Amino acid sequence: MSVFLETSRGNLVLDLDKKNARKKFLIVALAHLNHWILSDFDYEKDVSLTGQLADVPEAVKAELDKKELEDTPGTKEESAPPGSVEFLGSEDGFQLRILLDSRSSKDVVGKVAEGLDVLDNVNKSDGKLKILHTHVVFDPFSLDLSSLGQRKTETDFSAEQIKELLKASRAPEDDKASVEALALELLGDLSHYKVKPSPQTLFIAKLNPITTENSLEVIFSRFGAVKKANIMKGKKTPYAFVEFESQESAESAYTQLHDNCTIDGHQVVVDFSQSTSRPGDVGFNEDNFEE
């Protein structure tokens, strides 16, 4: 399962491991809620980026209590490479820490699968990094967002607050115009937390840059009619959303490809998209709005 972080310095994709189910639940739930919006990281050069304390909402705790989930606590410290993601704290409040260098740890819950170059650039410059949005790429818990609470949006902040928050996370060489532009982009980008993910859309990560939307349509059409394929330019490698005409076709493609799929020489990741979509995006369907 993966969580996609849009940050002020580039995109990060966090792959969470198969252990520590309760901790994964909390991370996924807060990512669904966009809980870390406009929060920044404490920086320690060549050591780590540590996120702000995330207070777990009571609604999320209630949902967690309904699940029969267990963690597998680490009994000894093991070597963790750069990009490892640690969970610090408890089920009342926790922090995510991303390691910038190798170290011993028993708190690792995953790793940065995409965006190591972003971490490297941050570590070599000023250490400033702020989360702009969080999205869940694949949610094994199939959480009902309405039971968790309302997804946070930029409307929780004033325009001036957003500009000030962004200034604190931008590199010194960034000019006022770039901050203004990003602030306007954020203010116009309202999160549609009431939109259900489309069960007909697959998320394809780690694509070869030479792969085209047409080739994706051809490759995936053997599982059923493809409505549309959109390739997005990631910071390191492109990723895509492929929407089928039917849910059955999407499920067939996922079943046959999620364990082993190579496209244009790249081993790619195939998962169901759990991110909510915006009007005009692949997977957006007005019928998916909840009343």
UniProtKB/TrEMBL annotation:
Task: Tell me the segments the record calls region Disordered.
Answer: 64-84
Keywords of the record: Isomerase, Nucleus, RNA-binding, Rotamase
> Sorted alphabetically, which SUPFAM superfamilies does this protein's record hold?
RNA-binding domain, RBD
Give the primary localization class.
nucleus
* Start-end of Basic and acidic residues biased regions: 64-79
Write down the Gene3D superfamilies for this protein, in alphabetical order: 3.30.70.330
Signal peptide residues are none
Can you state which reaction this protein catalyses?
A: [protein]-peptidylproline (omega=180) = [protein]-peptidylproline (omega=0)
Output the Gene Ontology cellular-component terms: nucleus
GO MF assignments: peptidyl-prolyl cis-trans isomerase activity; RNA binding
Q: Does the keyword Nucleus apply?
A: yes
How would you classify this enzyme at the top EC level?
isomerase
UniProt-annotated location(s) = Nucleus
Q: Which domain of life is it from?
A: Eukaryota
Domain RRM, residue spans: 200-275
Against PANTHER family, the record matches this protein to: PEPTIDYL-PROLYL CIS-TRANS ISOMERASE-LIKE 4
What family does the entry list?
Answer: Belongs to the cyclophilin-type PPIase family. PPIL4 subfamily.
Query: What is the protein's known function?
Result: PPIases accelerate the folding of proteins. It catalyzes the cis-trans isomerization of proline imidic peptide bonds in oligopeptides.
The name this protein goes by in its record: peptidylprolyl isomerase
